[in-house]
Specification:
Protein name: PCDA5 protein
Organism: Pluvianellus socialis
CATH architecture of the largest domain: Sandwich
Subcellular location: Cell membrane
Strand order of the largest sheet: 33-41-40-36-37
Helix content: 10-25%
CATH class of the largest domain: Mainly Beta
Number of strands: 50
Keywords: Calcium, Cell adhesion, Cell membrane, Glycoprotein, Membrane, Repeat, Signal, Transmembrane, Transmembrane helix
Structural class: mainly beta
Shape: rod-shaped
Distance between the termini: 147 Å
Strand content: 35-45%
Number of domains: 6
Membrane topology: Single-pass type I membrane protein
CATH topology of the largest domain: Immunoglobulin-like
Number of helices: 7
Largest sheet: 5 strands, mixed
C-alpha cells in the first residue's frame, strides 16, 4: 500500500518523519543490511533513512515555498529502494506550511493627487495589494489604514477569489486645511503570530472651489407669535465662504425640498438672508415650520451650504372655548336620585397650554353640577333633590373659561324640564272651613266653594271632592246627630258645596263634616278639610203664649189668672189693691233664637193711663195705681207679645181682670191654690196644670239653647280668625 508522511517546513535536521523500515515490513537490522535508502528528487535531499533504526528523518532545511510554491497541498512522491533482493517502494511526503513569510508590497511608497473640488465623498482610488508566499490562512491578508478622517480602505473580493484594494474618500478634502496627506497601509496575514507589511501613501490635494458656504448653525430655532402681520422679520441667517473672489459670493434661497406651505408663508432675501412673513401665522393650523435654507456661492461649479430654520409658532389666546351637548336625557323625573346624569358635554379649546386649559362651571350652581369624566368631557348630574312644583324647568348654563390672559369664555344653555311625579297630596287652603247658612234656604243653593290645591300636573293634579263623614247637631231637646250627607253635597269636580234641602235652624243648628280631596295620581293621594256649617236663624216663628200663672206672692187684694178661650186669660184683683201689685204674668216662648227669640210685652188696650201696666220684658201685669170702684167691675187688657226679629213677629193675649171685694179675691185665690193642677199659685184650671209645668220646662231649655248657640257662634268666630291668621 501507499505510505504517507507529513512534516512541517523549516523543521530541524534529525527530526523523525516516520518509522519507514517498520512501515515497509522490514525486520530489525534488515534496513541497514539491505541498504534501505530514499531517492530525493533534486540535487539536495531533504530527508534520509537513518541506518540503524530505519527511520525517515529530516536531513536538511525543508522550504515548502521553494519546493511547491503556491501549490497546495505540497506532496512529494519519493522512491524507497531496498536490495537483496531489489525492491522499490513509493512513499508520499507532505510538507505542511508554516507562517514564515510576511506580506510584501511591491513598492514601499505610492503617490497620487486628488482634486478637492471634483472629488466627492465616496470616490474610490485603486491600490496595489501586498502578496504573501504562504498559503491558506497564513496567506489571508487584511489591511488597515493609519487614522484619517478623510480616507478609509475597502477590500473587495471577486468570484475568482481575487482581491481588489481601494482607497475611499470619506470626507471632502480641503487644501486650505491640509495640502498633503501621508497615510500608512498595513497588510497583516492570518498566521499565528501574524506577520505584517507596510506601504506609505502620499496624497497631494489639488486646489479648487472647494469651500462651500457654511452657516454658523446647522439649525436655527426661532419663535414667532401667531397672528403676526405679513412682512414681519422672522430671522436673518448668515453663511461664510473661505474662498475668495466670486467663489465667496453667496446667494440665499430656499432649498429645493421646501414645502408649498413654507413658500406660501415665508420669503427670503437673496442677498441679506432675511426671512420674513408672507402670510399670517395660525397656531391652530400649524404650530411649527421647518424651512430648509441653502447658501450657494458663485464658483464654477457652485457649492452650497445648507441649514434648517425651525419656526415655532407661539400660541395666542385667540380661540374661545367651545361647548357641545353630545347627549341629553330630558325630561328628568322630579324624584331622580342625586347623581343622575342629565347630559353629556364636550368642551374643547383649539389653543394650547394655559390658553387651551378650560375650566367649566354650571350656573346656577344648584340643583345641577358638573362631573369631569375624562379629558374634555363632562357629565351634567343632579346634585340636589328636584321639585317640579317649585321649579318645573331649569335653564342651565354651562360656562367655560380658558386660562389665557385675558381669558376667553363660552356659554352653552341647556333646557332641563322636570317631569311630574305624584308627590303632593291635595291641600285645602284652610284646615277648617266655617260656613254661615241661613235657614229656609232653597234646595240646591250653593253654600260655599271649597278648593284644594294640588301642585302636581295633569292627572296627578286633577282633584275630585267628596263628603267623607260628619253629622248634624239638632236643637236643644230635639233630635240628635244626623248624617251630613242628607243635608249637603259637594260637586266632585268644582268643589261647590250645596244644600240638598232647606235647612231649619230649629231642626239642625250645626253641620260638621269632612270633605276629602283625592288626586288622580298613581297611587292617589288625598287631603281632608273640616267644614262647619252654622245655620243662621231666621225670624220665622212668632211668639207662642203659654198658660199664665198668678203671682204666688200676691198681697191683699191679689187675684189669679185663669185661661178662657184661645188667647184669653182671666184674673182677679181686689179693690183697693195698692200700686205695683202683680195681678198676673203673661208667659210666651219663641222657637227662634237670639234677638228673634227675645220677647217684649206691650199693653195695647186700653191706651192711656189705665189702672194696669205690663212689664216690658217680664210680662208681669201689675196695678199702675190703687184700684177704685170707679174702675168698674172688669178691666179688659189686650197685651201684644213681640220679638226683636226683622221683621218682628207678634202674638196677642187678652186678659180679663175682674175687680171684686178683698174677701172674694181671697176665696178665689184659695180656690185656685186648692186645685192640684195649679202651679205656683197660678189661677189655672186643674186640667191645664200639665201645660203650665211644660211651659216652665220649656223656658229653662230655651235659656240653655240660647247660651249654647251663642257659645258655638263665639267659638266658630275665634276658630275662623285663628285659621286666617
Amino acid at each position: 500500500g501507499q505510505v504517507r508522511y507529513s512534516v512541517p517546513e523549516e523543521g530541524e535536521a534529525g527530526t523523525v518523519v516516520g518509522r519507514l523500515a517498520q512501515d515497509l515490513g522490514l525486520e530489525a537490522g534488515e534496513a541497514e543490511a539491505r541498504r534501505l535508502r530514499v531517492v530525493w528528487p533534486g540535487r539536495r535531499a531533504g530527508v534520509e533513512v537513518s541506518g540503524a533504526s530505519g527511520a525517515l528523518v529530516v536531513s536538511s532545511r525543508l522550504d515548502r515555498e521553494e519546493l511547491c510554491g503556491k501549490s497546495a497541498p505540497c506532496a512529494l512522491r519519493l522512491e524507497v529502494l531496498v536490495e537483496r533482493p531489489l525492491r522499490v517502494f513509493h512513499v508520499e511526503l507532505e510538507v505542511t506550511d508554516i507562517n514564515d513569510n510576511a506580506p510584501l508590497f511591491r513598492v514601499k511608497e505610492e503617490a497620487f493627487s486628488i482634486a478637492e473640488l471634483t472629488t466627492v465623498p465616496g470616490s474610490r482610488f485603486p491600490l496595489e495589494g501586498a502578496s504573501d508566499a504562504d498559503i491558506g490562512a497564513n496567506a489571508q491578508l487584511s489591511y488597515t489604514l493609519s487614522p484619517s478622517e478623510h480616507f478609509s480602505l475597502d477590500l473587495q473580493k471577486t468570484e475568482e477569489d481575487s482581491e481588489s484594494l481601494f482607497l475611499v474618500l470619506k470626507k471632502p478634502l480641503d487644501r486650505e486645511t491640509v495640502a498633503v496627506h501621508r497615510l500608512l497601509v498595513t497588510a497583516s496575514d492570518g498566521g499565528r503570530p501574524s506577520l505584517t507589511g507596510t506601504m506609505e501613501l502620499v496624497i497631494s490635494v489639488l486646489d479648487a472651489n472647494d469651500n462651500a458656504p457654511q452657516f454658523n448653525q446647522s439649525v436655527y430655532k426661532v419663535k414667532a407669535l401667531e397672528g403676526a402681520e405679513p412682512g414681519t422679520l422672522i430671522i436673518r441667517v448668515a453663511a461664510t465662504d473661505l474662498d475668495e473672489g466670486i467663489n465667496s459670493d453667496i446667494v440665499y434661497l430656499f432649498s429645493r425640498h421646501v414645502t408649498a406651505e413654507v413658500k406660501e408663508m415665508f420669503t427670503i432675501d437673496e442677498k441679506k438672508g432675511e426671512i420674513r412673513l408672507r402670510g399670517k401665522l395660525d397656531y391652530e393650523e400649524m404650530d411649527s415650520y421647518e424651512i430648509p435654507v441653502e447658501a450657494r456661492d458663485k464658483g464654477t461649479p457652485p457649492l452650497s451650504g445648507h441649514c434648517k430654520v425651525v419656526v415655532e409658532v407661539l400660541d395666542v389666546n385667540d380661540n374661545a372655548p367651545e361647548v357641545w351637548v353630545t347627549s341629553l336625557s330630558v325630561p328628568v323625573p322630579e324624584d331622580a336620585p342625586v347623581g343622575t346624569v342629565v347630559a353629556l358635554l364636550s368642551v374643547s379649546d383649539r389653543d394650547s397650554g394655559a390658553n387651551g386649559r378650560v375650566r367649566c362651571a354650571v350656573w346656577p350652581s344648584s340643583p345641577f353640577g358638573l362631573v369631569a369624566t375624562f379629558g374634555g368631557s363632562y357629565s351634567l348630574v343632579v346634585r340636589e333633590a328636584l321639585d317640579r312644583e317649585r321649579v318645573s324647568e331649569y335653564e342651565v348654563e354651562v360656562r367655560a373659561e380658558d386660562g389665557g390672559a385675558p381669558s376667553l369664555r363660552a356659554r352653552r344653555g341647556v333646557r332641563v324640564p322636570v317631569s311630574d311625579v305624584n308627590d303632593n297630596a291635595p291641600a285645602f287652603a284652610q284646615a277648617v272651613y266655617t260656613v254661615l247658612a241661613r235657614e229656609n234656604n232653597a234646595a240646591g243653593a250653593e253654600l260655599a266653594r271649597l278648593w284644594a290645591r294640588d301642585p302636581d300636573e295633569a292627572g296627578n293634579g286633577r282633584v275630585s271632592y267628596s263628603v267623607s263623614e260628619g253629622g248634624a247637631g239638632g236643637a236643644s231637646g230635639g233630635a240628635g246627630w244626623r248624617s251630613a250627607s242628607s243635608y249637603v253635597s259637594v260637586d266632585a269636580e268644582s268643589g261647590r258645596l250645596w244644600a240638598l234641602r232647606a235647612l231649619d235652624y230649629e231642626e239642625v243648628q250645626v253641620l260638621q263634616f269632612e270633605v276629602r280631596a283625592v288626586d288622580a295620581g298613581e297611587p292617589p293621594l288625598c287631603g281632608n278639610a273640616t267644614v262647619q256649617v252654622f245655620v243662621v236663624d231666621e225670624n220665622d216663628n212668632a211668639p207662642a203664649l203659654l198658660p199664665a200663672a198668678g203671682s204666688g206672692a200676691a198681697g191683699p187684694g191679689a187675684g189669679a189668672v185663669a185661661v178662657g178661650g184661645p188667647g184669653e186669660l182671666w184674673a182677679w184683683a181686689a179693690w183697693g189693691a195698692p200700686a205695683g201689685q202683680v195681678v198676673a204674668k203673661i208667659r210666651a216662648v219663641d222657637a227662634d233664637s237670639g234677638y228673634n227669640a227675645w220677647l217684649r210685652y206691650e199693653l195695647w188696650e186700653p191706651r192711656g193711663k189705665g189702672p194696669f201696666r205690663v212689664g216690658l220684658y217680664s210680662g208681669e201685669v201689675s196695678t199702675a195705681r190703687a184700684l177704685e170702684e170707679a174702675d168698674g167691675p172688669r178691666q179688659r187688657l189686650v197685651i201684644v207679645v213681640r220679638d226683636h226679629g226683622e221683621p218682628a213677629r207678634s202674638a196677642t193675649a187678652t186678659l180679663s181682670v175682674s175687680l171684686v171685694e178683698g174677701g172674694e179675691a181671697a176665696l178665689a185665690a184659695a180656690g185656685s191654690s186648692s186645685a192640684s193642677s195649679w202651679a205656683s199659685g197660678a189661677g189655672v184650671r186643674p186640667e191645664e196644670g200639665g201645660a203650665a209645668s211644660s211651659a216652665s220646662a220649656t223656658n229653662v231649655w230655651l235659656v240653655v239653647a240660647i247660651c249654647a248657640v251663642s257659645s258655638l257662634f263665639l267659638l266658630a268666630v275665634v276658630l275662623y280668625g285663628a285659621s286666617r291668621w
